Amino acid sequence: MDAAPTAKGSGPGSKASVNKQLMAQSVAMSKKVKQQQEQAKKIDETVFLYDEVYDRMQDAKKAAEAKREDDTQERKPKYIKALLESAETRRLDHLRAEEKMYQREREAEGDEYAGTESFVTQAYKDQIEETRRAEEEEKKREEANRAKAGATGMSHYYKTLLERESAAHNAAVAATTIGPSLPNSSKHGPNLTIQRPPEMEPLSDLQLAKEAALRGQDVEVNDSGEIVDKRELLLPGLNLAAPNTRRIGLPIDKAKAKRSSEEPVVHRAVGAAASQREIRERQARQLERQMEEEERRKKEEQERKEREELERRTAKRNDEVSVMSARERYLARKKARLETLEQLDEAGGQN
């Protein structure tokens, strides 16, 4: 005997029952999403005000850029002064190198001019005094720079660049804390500091499976009480994950890290950690060598010119001697020929 036919749409697999289940699941999901949004708003009231916060950050960045441009336009020229100081430093280095070269020449001469009288002009005395005064000022300036312990070179450039970028970023973030475009929920304005809620603790897999079952989700759990595929827990929309409590990396001693960050960075490259005095001394020695080479080159050039002049004069003198000897030989031959003719004439007259 056949069973009586059921009414259309009243079975468990009918279209109406499936739509009803989908609607119930959708309502449960939207309630869960709404609950999560309310929890997020309790943590931060401006969590969903993306456009307003972004606009305030952009306005703060533009204000920082405008201020930096104004400072650049109002900045006084500093490179001309540095160039003039460098030129003056090179001039004094050249004077010191000349003085040391003359001193070496006097030491090389020894007692050759010991008994002669020496004269020193007032201009040379003023030049020596200026050199000594410049050395003292340089020494004081270097000591002051060492006392300040200021960084120089590329490390100082990168430090300044990072500080400027950090200041601009902090200004942009600070501009989003309070503003007229953001709704004020209290007299102090909205609080944009994201803090972890105290009740936000990691849930076990069994608890997550129970919550999923309440939402109407079918989650598979193995014998150890672990969820086989946690992707089954995902819902449409925003999925707020639990905080990652795993410790990544080894623990770092905060005191050691702070102490190392406060210590100045000293580069080990050649010349990078050297003081200004050492650099100046090295440049002075190089300048002395260049001046000595230039002096030796001039002396060799002078000796070469004198040698060529002597050779030219000797060659000219040899030419004059050759001409004189040839003339004397010519006159001697002419005289001998005349004597021969006279002898022939005398012999003809006698005949």
From TrEMBL:
Domain Nuclear speckle splicing regulatory protein 1 N-terminal residue range list: 34-149
Biological process per Gene Ontology, one example term: regulation of alternative mRNA splicing, via spliceosome
Organism lineage string: Eukaryota, Fungi, Dikarya, Basidiomycota, Agaricomycotina
Family annotation (InterPro entries): NS_splicing_regulatory_protein (IPR053246), NSRP1_N (IPR018612)
Stretches the record annotates as Disordered: 1-21, 59-78, 103-122, 129-148, 178-198, 255-326
UniProt keyword list: Coiled coil
Compositionally biased spans, kind Polar residues: 178-194
Extent of Basic and acidic residues compositional bias: 59-77, 129-146, 255-266, 277-326
Family that this chain belongs to: Belongs to the NSRP1 family.
Protein name: Nuclear speckle splicing regulatory protein 1 N-terminal domain-containing protein
Record carries keyword Coiled coil: yes
